[in-house]
Amino acid sequence: MISQAIAIPRLIESKYHALNDLPGALKAHGFKRVLFTVGNGIEDLFKEKISHLTSEPELIITGPVILEELDVEKLAPMAYDFPNYDVIVSMGGGKAIDSGKYTAFLKGIPFISIPTSISNDGFASSGASLMIEGKRKSVSAKMPYGVIADLSILSTAPERFYYSGLGDVVSKITASYDWQYEANRGVGSVDHFALLTSKKSVNSVVRLPRPYIEEGLFLKEVVDSLIMSGISMEVAGSSAPASGSEHLISHAMDRLAPGEYLHGIQVGIATYIMSLTQDYRVNRVRTFLSDTGFFDYVKTFEIPKQLLVDAIRLAPSIKPNRHTTLHEQKYVEKAIKYLDEDRILRSILF
Ligand SMILES: [Zn+2]
């Protein structure tokens, strides 16, 4: 029998003006001394919203303190220098969330994330993307105790983050296929509850009727999906339910063209390529990425086709211990062929 302790968020709010309820929620969950960290510029952008939290008389709030340090060698001493708090609350983009999450992990205290954009599922997962000896590495840190997704904040984020979030949502389709694919070939095993969570996280979004996509509440579905995806990784004890060959292509792009494109933009294109290659739910992926305007948006980046060719070839070596579809040479060739043969890929790559 396998038994494991799974940390899942205890406080999840995803709605318009969710931040207004945070002081009450902190008190209800027994937190008093709060370290409140933010990303650069967040305080100016959301002055009024933040004041709900910082002016709460029954809480002892330190902050907002700007914390966006990703270099572990600099972050660790900073973390130990902070006095003892009951909880760390971090608001901002990926850097603010990851540095706050890792600080809470080092201090052994709960962490609450308030994402200001939804470019990937990092705000609701235990992983943190940090710099170790000058290289970007995924480090396992701490599952957030709470996620406060304030839709009135997230809806003001630049559109590139929104499209990136969509790409990370749809990737669970090819990721779950790869996870089962390798388990069927004797590499690792599938955790069925994690697989179910991952599949449901994406299905609730991609099956929405087209008119819904234009409505504000679609954003909530995307946020909830990314939260579910973060939880699926926690249940599995690995990133496998949320990250397959499509993520390997994206990681390879990070190496070949560092910092050039957002994570979810890369992942979204790679998901479409891999759904064709796996011959798995192609219509669903294609319809979703077309209807949401993802493909049209990606086109504006003028991503070179050759970068994708190189990334697909490099992808399997990124995680040599896995056995996704791309770990078989015939599928590498098949994936590359689609770059020329598929009408949509021909039109969005340059
Ligand atoms: Zn991702």
Could you give the topology of this structure?
Layout lengths: L10 E5 L6 H7 L4 E6 L3 H4 L1 H8 L5 E7 L5 H10 L5 E6 L1 H14 L3 E5 L11 E6 L2 E6 L5 E5 H4 L4 H26 L7 H15 L3 H4 L3 H20 L8 H12 L6 H16 L3 H10 L2 H6 L5 H14 L10 H13 L1 H6 L2
Parallel strand pairs: 1-8, 2-3, 2-4, 4-5, 5-8
Antiparallel strand pairs: 6-7
Helix pairs in contact: 4-5, 7-8, 7-10, 7-12, 8-10, 11-12, 11-15, 12-13, 12-16, 15-16
Give a verbal description of the structure:
- This protein has helices spanning 22-28, 42-45, 47-54, 72-81, 94-107, 151-154, 159-184, 192-206, 210-213, 217-236, 245-256, 263-278, 282-291, 294-299, 305-318, 329-341, 343-348, and strands at residues 11-15, 33-38, 60-66, 87-92, 111-115, 127-132, 135-140, 146-150.
- It starts with 10 loop residues before the first strand and ends with a helix.
- Helix 12 (263-278) crosses helix 16.
- The chain has 17 helices and eight strands.
- The chain is globular, with a radius of gyration of 20 Å.
- The mean pLDDT is 94.
- It folds into two domains: 11-154, 3-Layer(aba) Sandwich (Rossmann fold); 159-348, Dehydroquinate synthase-like - alpha domain (Dehydroquinate synthase-like, alpha domain, Up-down Bundle).
- The strands form two sheets. The chain has a six-stranded parallel β-sheet with strand order 1-8-5-4-2-3. Strands 6-7 form a two-stranded antiparallel sheet.
- It has 350 residues and is of the alpha/beta class.
- Helix content is 54%, strand content 13%.
- Strand 6 and strand 7 form a beta hairpin.
- The chain binds zinc ion (ZN).
- Zinc ion binds next to helix 12.
